[in-house]
Design brief:
Length: 437
């Protein structure tokens, strides 16, 4: 990961305040990957399971103007800054940067849809306000501080995506970013293997509300039973497909009516109806006009791998292969089942990871669920999807399970026809997009 420093003068002042004996007068970016180093970058080497970034410090210093942090044995070089912990040094730098930031922080977390929600909200706000956002899906204890440093201190709004795969992580991230507005897209059992219980996972997510500033606003999804139960001293603004919400959505074909205002939702975005509703609640609170909101919806492009349509040869693929959980898998497949195809519908799914003791049962449930849908062919790929395949009945034109991408590609190419409609969904590690890329 590498981020570019856009507010250079303020960053240099902040950095030199922390490291008066290692001052800089020029900065380009910060990276934790030595392969992405550019001139005048700061290199933050980290220890991983299979590598240690410190092994690449000498190589990093061969690039003009670079400096490096170092938590290992002291290196006698003016361009190397000794630390007790490089991660703590990064967090300290980001924390000081946060204190300088005058913008309102909009923090987004949830089991699914965080990145798309952030990207669409930024797409709507950027034309009216000076606005920054976190980069990509860099939402962890390392990625978020880096993304924060990428933001300008004089922006009016900064939109940050917060992720967690272990207990207490959202609270720690909130202590760093101190949000003014918070949204949880939804809560499901993603990353459940890292928690002792589902309740522990829920409490970890809810911290994004409980860590709000006193004057902050929590945007509450009333359609999610875990989120809707939260009790807070802060102001709450609710949304949902229910009459008792502050922003009540009603979907009729491509028309989404919110509090008697009707928006036309492009077909390619219909699966984002709940996301659009949540963003409207925030946008209206921030005085975005309905006309601007509609125009922004029309011009929004879905981030790659998160449900965007790709035309390959004579067939169409919905690439939703960036990640997968039981809830997002069911939602995506259900949507695909309802969509129109000029020819056949082909479902290709990969393993859903980080489900712990629920892995087998969730994959079996998925197979039973698929049987009742409008789908012609099913191809499963991976280890866990064998459980899914075992529950598929004989109603399909073709069904098959594959352990290798080579075998999957071979069958796919032999089976796909002109005007077929294909849906890809699986966890990031599976990389299902390889089937066409």
């Amino acid at each position: 990961m590498r981020i570019k420093i856009t507010d250079m003068d303020n960053f240099i002042e902040t950095f030199n305040h922390i490291y008066p004996n290692n001052t800089i007068n020029k900065i380009n970016g910060i990276t934790i990957d030595s392969r992405k180093l550019e001139e005048y970058d700061i290199f933050i080497p980290l220890k991983g399971e299979t590598y240690d970034g410190h092994d690449f410090i000498n190589k990093a210093l061969t690039i003009k103007g670079t400096i490096s942090l170092n938590q290992n044995k002291r290196i006698e070089n003016k361009r190397v800054i000794q630390t007790k912990s490089n991660i703590e040094a990064l967090t300290k730098l980001a924390s000081l940067w946060r204190k300088k930031i005058s913008s309102n922080i909009i923090a987004i977390t949830g089991s699914n849809g965080k990145t798309t929600t952030k990207e669409l909200l930024y797409h709507i706000l950027k034309d009216k306000y000076k606005c920054s956002k976190s980069s990509g899906n860099h939402n962890s204890s390392i990625g978020l501080p880096l993304s924060l440093l990428n933001c300008n201190i004089n922006d009016e709004y900064t939109i940050l995506e917060l992720g967690a795969n272990q207990k207490g992580e959202i609270a720690d991230l909130c202590n760093l970013v101190m949000p003014n507005y918070s949204l949880i897209t939804n809560i499901s059992n993603n990353h459940i293997e890292n928690y002792n219980s589902f309740n522990e996972l829920v409490e970890t997510k809810l911290a994004i509300f409980k860590k709000l500033k006193v004057s902050g606003i929590a945007f509450i999804n009333l359609n999610d039973k875990e989120i809707s139960k939260v009790q807070l001293p802060n102001k709450k603004i609710t949304f949902g497909m229910c009459k008792d919400s502050d922003f009540n959505g009603i979907l009729d074909n491509n028309n989404l009516t919110i509090n008697n205002v009707t928006f036309n939702i492009p077909t390619r975005l219909l699966h984002l109806t709940n996301t659009i509703l949540s963003i409207y609640a925030i946008s209206k609170t921030l005085n975005i006009s309905d006309i601007h909101f509609q125009n922004s919806i029309n011009s929004f492009s879905i981030p790659s791998g998160r449900g965007n349509s790709v035309t390959v040869n004579d067939y169409t693929i919905i690439d939703d292969a960036y990640n997968a959980s039981p809830s997002s898998m069911i939602l995506g497949i259900k949507r695909f089942s309802r969509m129109h195809s000029k020819n056949r519908k082909i479902l290709i799914i990969g393993d859903m990871l980080e489900l712990g003791r629920y892995a087998n049962s969730e994959h079996e449930k998925l197979g039973s669920f698929i049987n009742n849908l409008n789908i012609d062919m099913v191809l499963t790929f991976g280890t866990l999807t064998k459980k899914t395949f075992s529950k598929l009945d004989d109603s399909f034109i073709y069904k098959g399970h594959f352990d290798s991408m080579k075998a999957l590609k071979k069958i796919f190419k032999s089976k796909v026809e002109k005007n077929d409609f294909i849906y890809l969904k699986g966890s990031r590690f599976i990389k299902l997009e390889r089937i066409y890329k």
